């Protein structure tokens, strides 16, 4: 009988404050969708780091005849065969080095034509203007400075470049976007909590006569508070369900179908469905507990029991 009464009171409360209940559902849905999206963005950045950092190379570019005339780092002339052998020998002895690939001037010219063949500059270049280089794959991409310290400024070396630096700028941008999403999410959570508190206050005020009678007949505090707390929890849970729907739909229509980014952007290793599905229980639990706790603390102040 008591359970039936509580459930009936939940339905009455939701219907009485339909507009505010709808506002709670929408705000909770948006805030938790942003919450889930920020978690997935963090997973995506971590996945991309693991994928791309494993592929980045450190490039040791060697001086050519053109550099000897224009680049201060190559003031002593183009790289010699003895210098190349010494550089290769030193690389072989380094424990941080996983693999070394030599790229000749002809190979560099071929790769440049493949990538920038439409550029006006491409027609004026010749193979002897390209730089020989050693492409070095490190066991740990964070150890770039070891290579830079060993070879930067050495005779025959024009420059040492780390591809990881380019990726760091990209991941810095992605992390910045992720923090911006979290800031908006925090703002939306505050709005949702304020709406929940207001909804509970209005509901308690509209039923103050019923709660007064219940106190007179000896109803416990929890028995009086339960319908209000469960109203907030139900509204939050609906919002959480909507947020889960947003995330699933976003993964399906943006990555797999619709925009189909997984097919158009083959260079990006997108997170899988497992990453999305593991976030849904957390979102649902948050959508249930957050409104219930907000309602509980609001009732301690606004409902005298």
From TrEMBL:
Part of the ABC transporter FtsEX involved in cellular division. This is Cell division protein FtsX. Forms a membrane-associated complex with FtsE. The chain crosses the membrane at residues 21-41, 179-200, 221-254, 280-299. Gene3D superfamilies: 3.30.70.3040. Residues 56-160 form the FtsX extracellular domain. InterPro entries: ABC3_permease_C, FtsX, FtsX_actino, FtsX_ECD. Keywords: Cell cycle, Cell division, Cell membrane, Membrane, Transmembrane, Transmembrane helix. Belongs to the ABC-4 integral membrane protein family. FtsX subfamily. It is found in: Cell membrane. Residues 183-301 form the ABC3 transporter permease C-terminal domain. Pfam families: FtsX, FtsX_ECD. It is a multi-pass membrane protein.
